[in-house]
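Example record used in the benchmark description.
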Amino acid sequence: MSQEFELNWKKLMPTILIVAGVILVIIFWAKMTVTIDAGHGGVLFKTFAGGIDTTQTYGEGFHVVSPWNKMVVYETRQQEIAEDMQVLSSNGLEIKVDVSAWYQPIWSEMGILHVNIGTDYLKRVVIPSLRSSARTVIGRYTPEQIYSTKRDAIQDEIFQETKAILDDKYIQLNRVLIRSIILPPTIKTAIESKLKEEQEALEYVFKLEKAKQEAERQRIDADGKATANRILSASLTDKILLEKGIQATLKLAESPNTKVVVIGSGKDGLPIILGDK
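Model output (structure tokens):
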């Protein structure tokens, strides 16, 4: 009996192992497979092999991992954060600024990012860096500069200072935008009034300069005509005038219209032309 049981057990053992294996695969399948969506990347946490693998970032698609390991997925597309903040200008005036930043994790350094900062790097690093840089940069300028002439320069400076911080934190900063600047109404009105006065002054100076240039042009034109007339008067001698008269008479005489030419009867000996047709 025991021999028969042992024989049957040996026959069933492969089947039992296969069934057990299938059951284990079914149980652990969800932990052994990972699908990384488009625009995302993964870093692998190896439970028995030193933790996060900082040498590789896993791309989009299907991946098989050991059931005791874990894939941590990050969004790798460009993302945006917008911050409304109260900042002080160089003269201590409080200004409301709306600043946004475009950012994304550096692909090749995502493992290091996860080890040092983690998935909540937006709150830990990006927002504090943006806020600090904005306050520092805007604090260098007056309200008038912030509102009118220096907006692009301020935007670029905030970008450069924020980028310098995030480059060391494994995060790529693509751009910083100042979306709005809100000054206290009284200050805004005063600045706009001053800008309007400056614009009107510039327009007045432009008109004066234009009138001055037109007057100079007319003077030069008049001087040129006067000089030309003096040269022409000096060059018109009696002989030249007589020659011009003869040439004109010859051209008229060649005309097909009927006429009578009396030679030597005119003033200074020029011909007289009689008749019309």
